[in-house]
Amino acid sequence: MSALRKKFGDDYQVVTTSSSGSGFNQPAPEKKKKRQRFVDKNGRCNVQHGNLGGETSRYLSDLFTTLVDLKWRWNLFIFILTYTVAWLFMAFMWWVIAYIRGDLNRVGHDDKYTPCVANVYNFPSAFLFFIETEATIGYGYRYITDKCPEGIILFLFQSILGSIVDAFLIGCMFIKMSQPKKRAETLMFSEHAAISMRDGKLTLMFRVGNLRNSHMVSAQIRCKLLKSRQTPEGEFLPLDQLELDVGFSTGADQLFLVSPLTICHVIDTKSPFYELSQRSMQTEQFEIVVILEGIVETTGMTCQARTSYTEDEVLWGHRFFPVISLEEGFFKVDYSQFHATFEVPTPPYSVKEQDEALLLCSPLMAPSLCNSGGKTSSLDGLETLEDSESTAKLPTKLQKMGREDMPRKLLRMSSTTSEMTYSLGDLPMKLQRISSVPGVSDDRQTGKACKINTDPISTSVADLPPKLQRMAGGGRMDGHLPPKLRKMNSERFT
């Protein structure tokens, strides 16, 4: 604990999570009732297909895949049953041939009689002959003679049928034993996901690891968010699937899975969690499905591992404990801390709320508006400030005309130098030069100074977008005023 505090600070608290979700050093809050999952933690999908009707015949059209997908107990049952029935059937056919030819009655034959199959005189002997032939044992005591053409034909049929049955059943068992599903058992996912700040951004994180020394070639990870929603047309979607970006645009979803990695999803305006906050997580219902795909290095087969995280398995304000340490000549991974997390200072607000707060406290707003805590936009605040203070700085005759004859842009341009200094002080120099037009400067400035600043302003405005050019007025604001107001404004600076 002391080493952790020395490395991360006293504000961090280690939390060791267990499989049941408890194990925090502080009292755990009351849990919500466990709900049905779409994908279990082991990757099994909780979906059952019912009321197929006549569509069940489609399973028989792909019999090989159907047998591979069956459980092991059914595969073994079908394997034993098929061989048993085939052996009994072929043994019965040899017994029938011996019965029709009269080979079973050895009393009525002399020494020169040649049977179809030597030493086959009952069903057990016929069965033993079939097994010796099928398994290529060849003891030499029972054999086919050249006086039995029907036996030769049955022998050819037996060889072909036996090869087909062996290829089908043995191939099915081999594929089932070599399925890469067992490789997924050595791919680990953290029991919980965490939400905290990383690189100045609110990030959803979870951890993946590989227990084997053999690598997963071309490992790629994807995330799906399952959440019910209702469309504007009124249609209800119980399991709507949304994509969570875990680095598709940057290539971070391509993993070099040698040591445990922390997968990150940055919560921004494009994220489905843009409006998710710590408080809203208490009422939200969603499920994050994680899919890890790769090629098994030893077999070359594609493997897929899956898991999921429900809303009660996402820890707000937590970060994963480091598991890699440098030893003498190698890096050691401590999997005992694979699922462990610790608390970190994290704002409980959603990204949307943080963006709105930053917008309200932008440098273009007055201090009273930024600190008031109200929800008035910056534009409305500027208009209110102009209505109360800007008119007082105008000449008496211009004030008498009031806001009825004067455009709102003129009032905005007639603010004092101190007001413009606060609102424009953080802007680039080019925008400050554009905004410092004649009429905004202090009364102590002379007309000569205004005349000097006209040319740089005109040059800078030409480089701005059309919208800013209209706001700046092209460097001379008097050109847009009526003749009477231009005359009054010129008298003010003379």
Mean pLDDT: 75
Structural class: alpha+beta
* Overall 3D shape: elongated
Unreliable segments (pLDDT under 50, ≥5 consecutive)? Answer: 1-29, 372-394, 402-426, 434-461, 472-477
Helix fraction by DSSP (H/I, runs of at least 4): 25-40%
Radius of gyration: 42 Å
Tally of contiguous helical segments: 17
Main sheet properties: 5 strands, mixed
- Kindly state the number of beta strands: 15
Q: Separation of termini?
A: 76 Å
What is the beta-strand fraction? 15-25%
What's the topology here?
Blueprint: H1 2-8, E1 13-15, H2 57-61, H3 63-69, H4 72-101, H5 123-134, H6 149-177, E2 187-189, E3 193-198, E4 201-210, E5 216-230, E6 236-244, E7 254-255, E8 261-266, E9 287-296, E10 302-310, E11 314-316, E12 318-320, E13 324-326, E14 331-333, E15 341-343, H7 351-360, H8 367-371, H9 378-389, H10 396-405, H11 408-413, H12 417-424, H13 429-435, H14 447-452, H15 454-461, H16 466-472, H17 483-492
Parallel strand pairs: 3-11
Antiparallel strand pairs: 1-15, 2-4, 3-4, 4-8, 5-6, 5-7, 5-9, 9-10, 12-15, 13-14
Helix pairs in contact: 3-6, 4-5, 4-6, 13-15
In short:
The chain has 494 residues and is an alpha+beta fold.
List keywords for this structure.
disordered N terminus, 17 helices, alpha+beta, 494 residues, 5-stranded mixed β-sheet, 5-stranded antiparallel β-sheet
